[in-house]
């Protein structure tokens, strides 16, 4: 039995900071979009905060992630600056992608956010390529592919896991299993009892973990990242979680079982984590309150920046199609 | 002719191999991915990559699983962090398996990222009717890719052009789809000048003429040359425009020629309906309506899957007779 890694106090607080950064940004995204100040499709990650927070504290800016259109938490956890993130979601020229990608295509190479795809399953084959480049160049970088339980049923998942295993690529596949692919419950669409069972078909380690448990999630992520970095090849992590606000903002949740959502919200992972930090003496109320107030201020500034920024000019239609400007 | 003046000859397999070899020697970021491409698997199904894994190692010349999404996905990921992958999709019909990666990702990441990332990826693929490979191994699908903003489409008509255009594709900073015609792989042509790249987006006037302009690319070009030579003996002077690249499309060269001859025929092996010829004809119409002496002629394959039986396959593909008839029709 291998020893399970436990984070030190500073890492635990940092993990909490990232989780609460996601939570508070999400709360503001929903309120600003509902108020009509920003018009954008929005996929709330509320309830899934712990997963990318725990993965990201094991990564550096040199490590890569590929995520998906409902992955704003993955980007925030990896460190995309809030002003550029908000401006991109608002479609402004000051956004990460000059307003040309939008919320489903946030890219920020400086923090390793290399691709955000709007297509279910497509984060995995590209993450392989990021890992392949690192492997060929002899770099110690790791690539993480985030995706949902629904994506484990698409062909790209199987092609990518097979190739990653054959080539022992430094990649970590993080499946955020929130129980639903769009509106369809896991059991209706997925033949495997556990997503992690699929790893054995590709001769790679697979683990199912409570994605809402920061300690368990940290340990699983650390083991997988360390393995990849050391040349030990890929890992499939299935992180069990639940999304609080359906697939897309405005989702009526009509497909959910009664009480399912309320029960999950009553066990809010960020609130539970906060309680744990205080109870176990890792942080006091005052410290966490100050951290949260600081994040609120940072979000205020990001929202103001996004709303005050200009839209891209129309010449952008012929820029970035190719290296050369097109007619 | 003595040995000293006889031009060195080379086929397209050798020409592409030489371009890949030189690119790999020049830049460690150039890597090759594809099914069967390493020497253990005989250097590709027709041997285009022969010798390269032995020379550069299997780290850089990787035989992949038969998994086109994974191949192109891996190439995209490597490309956005600065490598210059050349990914082989064995046959053009197999690009269908990787269309999400090619169309939604390779072609669009530069734009969607606001220019923060780009995809210097070359996709090599072979195709072409005439070998009895039937409906799923021989289609020309260039119009699909030309219809997607963000990917260049390259279709050489000779070994020398294949060499020069391949080098340009590899060192271009955007994704390029490079179409190789399978049935003419072994046809020799004059060897290219070493190290000389042929620019993308610049058509080649293969033959000067004053009576009618024929625009083509890839394998059909050789049929156009044969017809033009024949008609030249009758005093019909055909100007031949070899597009070399479909995207970027060199409309300036086409329009200059069309304005001169006032008659145009466009020829391709892809099916005629909704094809590249339709786009070029429309653009000529937009610029030269009223100036032309005849409607723009279009030659392409019949709108049916590539058939197997030899008489059907031959009738499916446009041939010299149809090209000649179309040219004569513009002269009536």
Notable characteristics:
heterodimer, A: 327 residues, alpha/beta, Rossmann fold, six-stranded parallel sheet, two-stranded antiparallel sheet, 12 helices, 12% strand, globular, B: 332 residues, 2 domains, seven-stranded mixed sheet, five-stranded mixed sheet, 14 strands
Describe this structure in words.
The complex is a heterodimer of chains A (327) and B (332). With 327 residues, chain A is α/β, with parallel strands linked by helices. Chain A has a single domain (9-317), classed as Rossmann fold, CATH 3.40.50. Chain A is built from twelve helices and eight strands. In chain A, the strands form two sheets. Chain A has a six-stranded parallel sheet with strand order 2-1-3-4-8-7. In chain A, strands 5-6 form a two-stranded antiparallel ribbon. In chain A, helix 6 (155-166) links the parallel strand 3 and strand 4 (171-177). In chain A, helix 1 crosses helix 2 (50-56). The radius of gyration of chain A is 19 Å and the shape is globular. The model of chain A has no long low-confidence stretch (mean pLDDT 96). With 332 residues, chain B is of the alpha/beta class. In chain B, helix 1 (12-26) packs parallel to helix 7 (159-170) and helix 3 (68-80) runs parallel beside helix 4 (99-106). Chain B has a seven-stranded mixed sheet, sandwiched between helices. Chain B has a five-stranded mixed sheet with strand order 9-11-10-13-14, with helices on both faces. The model of chain B has no long low-confidence stretch (mean pLDDT 97). Chain B folds into two domains: 9-190, Thiamin diphosphate (ThDP)-binding fold, Pyr/PP domains (Rossmann fold); 204-331, Rossmann fold (3-Layer(aba) Sandwich), CATH 3.40.50. The A-B interface holds A 64, 66, 95-101, 105, 107-109, 114-115, 117-119, 122, 124-134, 136, 143, 155-156, 159-160, 162-163, 166-167, 319-323, 326 and B 31, 59-60, 62, 64-65, 67, 69-70, 72-83, 85, 100-101, 104-105, 109-118, 149-150, 152, 172-174, 248.
